[in-house]
Specification:
CATH architecture of the largest domain: Alpha-Beta Complex
Number of domains: 2
Number of helices: 10
Largest sheet: 7 strands, mixed
CATH superfamily of the largest domain: Medium-chain alcohol dehydrogenases, catalytic domain
CATH topology of the largest domain: Quinone Oxidoreductase, Chain A, domain 1
CATH class of the largest domain: Alpha Beta
Structural class: alpha/beta
Distance between the termini: 20 Å
Low-confidence stretches: none
Strand content: 15-25%
């Protein structure tokens, strides 16, 4: 069986649409017909060569999506043929199977335990979660990365509580989900920071109480005037080192928590004033929102089904697989928040 995939052949160059041959399934592997795939800044960084040397070229990409199980390999028990599934790079229960190696006219094509930029893909069992009734495949797509990363950073990593204040640096897909998480957690002030007014307008629709455009003014002074002494929580979701340092500076002394989510360019270094730490502030990393998929994903689905989690702004633009490079360009320019690839489009 063969399928069409968008393959990274050389960093700094556009993805190449390649026909690849699907190998026989190994222990713990599942063949999934991809319905929709999200496009994340992680893939953009890989394609643009911002994540350092890539020793796996050529390889497939994509780490969030939805689909239908076609076939299961030996010892797979979590899903069966015909099941609708969410695909996520975050490890849940089940076998941790290796990535498939596909064949093509250019030779072997590597892949990880999850890839979603293809019509069909071999996925590790532990990267799959059953989709509940009432959640469409298109809606489910961003629950593989954007939703759990952004919401998890607020709820799991920062452990937000009702009445606290929060500031989110970066109003892309993950930042918007962090805003939603802060609202759901009951934060009294939820401030969005971005360089683009258009993204801040979307942040308003997600529940941000204040929006600050970072345009060269004294950003920290503007934030202090809103926070009245510093925020309880700051989430950095821009992938830039300056906002990472600003996030730590923006939280209050004696207990303020700054969480870094964004992936900085390979080789970048973060410079912080160590006195910030002497004042009792905390700087935390986060592994994609520190989720436990088998526990947290159903909770996020429930919030969405109940209407408490609103995600329509993140699902505004759909592309075909043939438009994958256009989607990456639009994500890079900021003209779209979260590109969605619809595999049924030509």
């Amino acid at each position: 069986m063969k399928t069409l995939a968008a393959v990274l052949v050389e960093t700094g160059k556009p993805l190449v649409l390649e026909e690849i041959e699907i190998p026989a399934l190994m222990k713990g592997q599942v063949l999934v017909e991809i319905t929709f795939s999200g496009v994340c800044h992680t893939q953009l960084g890989e394609v643009r060569g911002k994540r350092g040397a890539d020793k796996y070229l050529p390889h497939c990409l994509g780490h969030e999506g939805s689909g239908v199980v076609v076939e299961t390999g030996p010892e797979v028990t979590k899903v069966k043929s015909g099941d609708r599934v969410l695909l996520s790079w975050m490890k849940g229960s089940g076998a941790d199977a290796p990535g498939a190696i596909y064949k093509s006219s250019r030779g072997s094509i590597n892949s990880g335990s999850i890839t979603t930029f293809s019509k069909y893909s071999v996925i590790s069992e532990n990267r799959l979660s059953p989709l509940p009734e009432g959640i469409t495949a298109r809606e489910a797509t961003i629950f593989g990365c954007a939703v759990p990363t952004g919401m998890g950073a607020v709820i799991n990593t920062a452990q937000a509580r009702a009445g606290q204040s929060a500031v989110i640096f970066g109003a892309g897909g993950i930042g918007l989900c962090a805003i939603a998480g802060a609202v759901i957690a009951g934060c009294s002030k939820v401030v969005a920071v971005d360089i683009k007014a258009s993204k801040l307008a979307v942040a308003r629709t997600m529940g941000a109480t204040h929006c600050v455009e970072s345009n060269g003014n004294d950003l920290l002074a503007d934030l202090r005037s809103i926070s009245e002494g510093g925020f309880d929580i700051a989430i950095e979701a821009s992938g830039q080192t300056e906002p990472m340092a600003q996030a730590l500076a923006a939280v209050r002394d004696r207990g303020g928590v700054a969480v870094v989510l964004g992936n900085a360019r390979f080789g970048d270094r973060l410079m912080i004033d160590p006195r910030e730490l002497n004042h009792g502030k905390q700087l935390r990393g986060s592994w994609g929102g520190d989720n436990k998929p088998d526990q947290d994903f159903p909770r996020y689905f429930g919030l969405y089904a109940s209407g408490k989690l609103k995600l329509d702004p993140l699902l505004a633009r759909t592309y075909s697989l043939q438009q994958i490079n256009e989607s990456l360009n639009d994500l890079e320019s900021g003209s779209v928040v979260r590109p969605i690839i619809d595999m049924s489009l030509n």
